[in-house]
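Quick sanity check, Phosphoribosylaminoimidazole-succinocarboxamide synthase:
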Amino acid sequence: MQVYEGKAKKVIPLDDGKVIMEFKDDATAFDGKKKGQFRGKSWLNAQISAVLFKVLEERGVKTHFIGVAGDNRLIVERLKMYPIEVVVRNVVAGSLKKRLPLEEGTELKEPIVELYYKDDSRGDPMINHHHARVLGISEGEIREMERIALKVNEILREYFAERGVILVDFKLEFGKNERGEIILGDEISPDTCRFWDAETKKSLDKDVFRFDKGDLVKAYEELYERLAGTS
């Protein structure tokens, strides 16, 4: 049985068209140049992802989520993943502040959707529709992923706002299932999103590790408590 191991997860295929997604305590930043390990991070990312996948499913977004399979494991539908990441931005932060003449924290008039090619050796470069089509992804597939990403953004912005959290930006990955449907895969966690406290603008995500802002696990715990305590 082939096991895929990435920077933050292991993917263990099963025989029934399902996959075990096992989260790791490892953390990386800046294309793997910065590394760390944080006990309890894997459990928090698995549980937060489970909560958010359930929220999306309840509101009509199809995901690969099936259930929780252990403290740091989810069971999900097997997908053929697209080699791109879809990023949605609501607030200026991260690389966007380097590309636009806007201050960090500026709320955008409308969400920005970006595409990135998944390749660590190339630094996951930003691409456009033309590049994606050269990679074998049709215009219709690109548009569908962007449509779903904006729907996810609409649902989660409201969901987090009710819990005193700003959804700054986030990364999604998509795949096709055996029925040929494009559905949401991977994870939705503080590893793949930026979350700020609505009042203090304190980071509740991996930026705590990236920029040495404090205790990473405590930040993730605070986010999870807001979800678990009010969902």
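Posting the structure with no commentary besides this: The longest helix spans residues 139-161.
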